[in-house]
Design brief:
Layout lengths: L1 H4 L9 E4 L4 E6 L8 E5 L4 E5 L5 E4 L3 H15 L6 E4 L25 E2 L1 H12 L5 E4 L2 E4 L1 H40 L1
């Protein structure tokens, strides 16, 4: 990634793609993925954010990196025109309800395009993220690794609890049978 785009100072620097008289800025944006980038088209003012910012679930794999990236992108666009922020996909309807995970049917889908205010608000939004689940405006923040770990621990605790209940129940049953034999 660094070599492909020619980054000199990842993730702090900015790289550029020259499309023949049309420059696209490439901004490092790790947090969802360690190699994530955001593209800014100087001619159109479009910010292509991919899975970094979109009306959907933001999977926060590295919260510290995500907050730093959000601040970097916000600082980059602060004094630039942004016609639209175009994410990778949409996962909610216009009422803000989230579609089922991996749903392919999206009736009344929210528009893909977000705006510059969404980019400028993202650093503070991510800074308030509790590490498991959070919602603010058009984004839902989830740490999939932590959430999976909680599910695994909870499942293990239920399993252990069930085994303990069976063992204690069996011991009571044996004691009651032994008491019944002594009484007989």
């Amino acid at each position: 990634m660094k070599r492909f785009y020619g980054f000199k100072d990842w993730p702090s620097g900015i790289a550029h793609i020259d499309l023949g008289g049309r420059i696209v800025d490439v901004i490092p944006a790790p947090g969802h993925n360690e190699t994530h980038v955001v593209f800014y088209d100087r001619r159109t003012g479009l910010l292509f954010s991919g899975d970094f910012l979109m009306p959907a679930r933001l999977l926060v794999d590295d919260p510290v990196a995500y907050v730093a990236s959000a601040q970097r992108v916000a600082d980059f666009v602060r004094d630039k025109p942004v016609a639209a922020v175009l994410g990778g996909h949409v996962e909610m309807n216009r009422a803000g309800e989230v579609y089922d995970w991996e749903s392919t049917y999206h009736p009344d889908e929210h528009a893909l395009a977000l705006g510059k205010p969404d980019v400028l608000a993202l650093p503070a939004t991510l800074a308030r993220f509790n590490g498991f689940y959070g919602r603010s405006g058009h984004v839902i923040m989830i740490d999939p690794t932590r959430n999976l770990l909680v599910v695994v621990i909870a499942t293990f605790a239920v399993f252990v609890g069930a085994i303990v209940a069976v063992i204690l129940g069996f011991r009571r049953w044996r004691r009651s049978r032994a008491g019944a034999r002594i009484a007989a």
